[in-house]
Task: inverse folding
């Protein structure tokens, strides 16, 4: 067999290796649920579950199908206008863990660890821009690929940066979870976050900066490392902002005071440190002299942040 050179070939190789895997003693008589039935390998969004269920994917060979969890999942997907054609679904453990009575059981840590290389290869192959974990097992499995400190209870309903992509942790759609941990109405609201993450992928991002400013360069590097491409770089020295543009950005960042930089040399030389500046004065100064603008300014169209810290960028990107 020749070396695989297409995405399809690579996926078939991963699938065949997973089907032949016998590393986990308790799962040797099970077959991995990984095939073209999992979805599109070109999907922009990847869902990760816990493991195939006895009445569900282990029987149908289609993740989240054939049981009530699957029906719930389809309903939640439809609520944000997504179908199975739009996504790829896999699991932290590809085979179906069973108890001695043949009931579903929680995967062992060793089983999750053994299957983790397959999960990592799937993520690298699919290259999703959004990853959605369904349940705490799936969320924890990602730690082994790139560490995070998220817990499902605290993280659900928010979007985070993980491994160069957006991560949306959700609860599992099983009837047991809906009955005891996360009701239908709550889960439907959670899925709106997924829709927001999808919208964020294609949002125009403008970075108002100075190319040789070290803080601006750090911000640009951070955006690239977290999977976001800047749509437009605006050199505020070569292409100064108008008074109208300055006023718009000040509103987005929370006021003129948030956009105004008191570290500019002119701030002291002009004697501005000795008195309280009005908003209109700050706006006029920023429109007249670019050094009064706290840089960089990350502009998402309906939200923005001035200056740079990883935390502030995560917050403004996660709100979209």
Result:
């Amino acid at each position: 067999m020749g070396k695989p050179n297409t995405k399809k070939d690579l996926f078939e190789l991963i699938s065949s290796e997973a089907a032949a895997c016998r590393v986990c003693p308790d799962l040797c008589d099970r077959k991995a649920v990984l095939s073209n039935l999992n979805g599109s390998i070109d999907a922009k969004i990847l869902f990760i579950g816990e493991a195939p269920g006895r009445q569900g994917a282990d029987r149908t060979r289609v993740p989240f199908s054939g049981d009530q969890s699957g029906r719930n999942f389809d309903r939640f997907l439809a609520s944000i206008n997504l179908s199975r054609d739009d996504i790829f679904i896999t699991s932290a453990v590809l085979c179906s863990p069973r108890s001695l009575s043949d009931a579903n059981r929680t995967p062992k840590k060793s089983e999750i660890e053994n299957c983790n290389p397959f999960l990592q290869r799937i993520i690298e192959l699919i290259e999703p821009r959004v990853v959605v974990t369904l349940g705490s097992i799936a969320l924890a499995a990602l730690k082994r690929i790139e560490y995070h400190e998220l817990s499902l209870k605290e993280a659900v309903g928010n979007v985070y940066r993980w491994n160069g992509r957006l991560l949306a942790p959700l609860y599992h759609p099983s009837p047991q979870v809906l009955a005891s941990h996360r009701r239908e109405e709550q889960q439907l609201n959670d899925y709106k976050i997924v829709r927001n993450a999808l919208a964020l992928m294609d949002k125009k991002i403008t970075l108002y900066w100075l190319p040789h400013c070290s803080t601006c360069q750090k911000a640009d590097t951070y955006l690239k490392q977290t999977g976001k491409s800047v749509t437009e770089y605006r050199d505020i020295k070569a292409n100064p902002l108008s008074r109208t543009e300055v006023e718009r950005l000040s509103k987005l960042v929370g006021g003129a005071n948030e956009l105004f930089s008191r570290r500019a040399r002119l701030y002291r030389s002009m004697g501005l440190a000795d008195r309280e500046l009005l908003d209109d004065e700050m706006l006029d100064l920023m429109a007249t002299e670019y050094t009064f603008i706290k840089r960089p300014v990350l502009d998402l169209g309906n939200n923005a942040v001035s200056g740079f810290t990883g935390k502030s960028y995560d917050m403004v990107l996660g709100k979209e």
